[in-house]
Amino acid sequence: MHLIIKKGEALKQKTPCLVLGVIEGKLKEPLLQQLDKLVAENVTRAVRSKEFSGRKGESLLLHGGTGLTAERVLLIGLGKERSLSLDSLRQAASSSARLLAEKQLGSFLLALPQVPVKKSTLSERIQVIAEGTLLADYRYDRYLPKNKPGQPVALEKVSLLIAAKESSKEAENAVAAAQSICAGVCFARDLVNEPGNRKSPEYLAMSAISMAEKVGITTRLLRREQMAKQGFGALLGVAQGSEREPYLIVLEYRGGTPEQKPIALVGKGVVFDAGGISLKPAEKMDEMKMDMAGGAAVLGVMQAAAGLKLPVNLVGVVPTVENMPSGTAIRPGDILTSLSGKTIEVLNTDAEGRLILADALTYVGRYQPRVVIDLATLTGACIIALGNHAAAVLGNHDGLIRQLLKAGERSGERLWQLPLWEDYAAQLKSDFADIKNIGGRPAGTITAAAFLQQFAGKFTWAHLDIAGMAWEEKGKPGQPKGGTGFGVRVLVEYLRGAAK
Fold this sequence. Notes:
Elements: E1 2-7, E2 18-23, H1 30-38, H2 42-48, E3 59-63, E4 72-79, H3 86-102, E5 107-110, H4 122-136, E6 157-162, H5 168-193, H6 201-215, E7 218-222, H7 224-230, H8 233-239, E8 247-254, E9 263-267, E10 269-273, H9 293-308, E11 313-323, E12 335-337, E13 343-345, H10 353-363, E14 371-376, H11 380-386, E15 391-395, H12 398-411, E16 415-417, E17 435-436, H13 444-456, E18 461-465, E19 471-472, E20 482-483, H14 488-499
């Protein structure tokens, strides 16, 4: 898709479709009144018949009239002015793109950059609109027949209209930034959507290497033998139930000065999670191919950081395994010795993500990171707590958590902080080892984080539980069913702030 910056008056643009944002209650704006005259007062008729009012998510498609250069006009509702935000523009662009693609229109012009969002810059508006458009064009169709009837058309050329006085260069730079970020998101989505029969730990490792070679990132893989020598007992304990070989994927991006300590990103990479001996129910087990979404997000962030040339040093670590039941699988009651030396009593083999993350968190210590952030589809309890509207964030540093919360609001990938008081660690006390891997049903998301804190406590550390956000079950504008790539945008936004 080509994203092009244009200047001029909206109603004088020649395009298959002109997209205008409409704020609820602002239907008497001069531009809309002028449009109404050009389309034989069809806007007025739609308002009177309550077909369109500007409410968020509403749309009205009109065909061009006398004196109107555009062949069509799409009015897209933005909601109340007081709630108008950059994310409103992102969602409006996404909804518009999806709707027009379904109507087989691959080219159109968005006048959304001229919507007056308070305290926003042109660059910010252009970036979110470009993101919404690019992500709406995402398809995972490699196993579908080509030109399947009824499929939305691929977008070809989308123009973004800015005012004559605004800087084309600033707008073009914002488009380039959005393209780098969305490339990382789409890479993560592709990895999550890949079926389990193809997506082995080796597949994930080779995908990381291929990406890294393209963008100039250093990559290193640790295989089973190397991890056994170093003492990755928790990770290898999970891996021993599968015939597929485990890997530790390590990526380094050096965009900062040589003396700058890196930010470490750690992502859970369970390519398929059957639960091990603590077998999951059959219903929705097919979705467990997405249990490596945290690892996919880390890979997507690394790709985006390189594309954006962020002036930071990053280390990305993805422990990748498959969790299967077999004669060689670990059993409930087994005790594993982690890379840190701590012993772990495994009471539930389906609480495996925290085991592989424990070793990965210990491993990143050798880089002396200034910040460590891990991402994981870690607990079903997080979905019970927050639904599919936000990811949980927990950690040991309030400043870091505030930065992540702010990045979540700005990126549209919302986070919500849960407490991590010392009291919760008491639920993890074991009679037979240093710690057990589950703390019972109460506060499951928090006790999972409390477990990880045992291995990350010496760092400035935050944990993102993205279980409710990594997978879209039904599909919606801008987000088809499947992997969402959640985590890429929020972490890129955080890193851009940290780079300053």
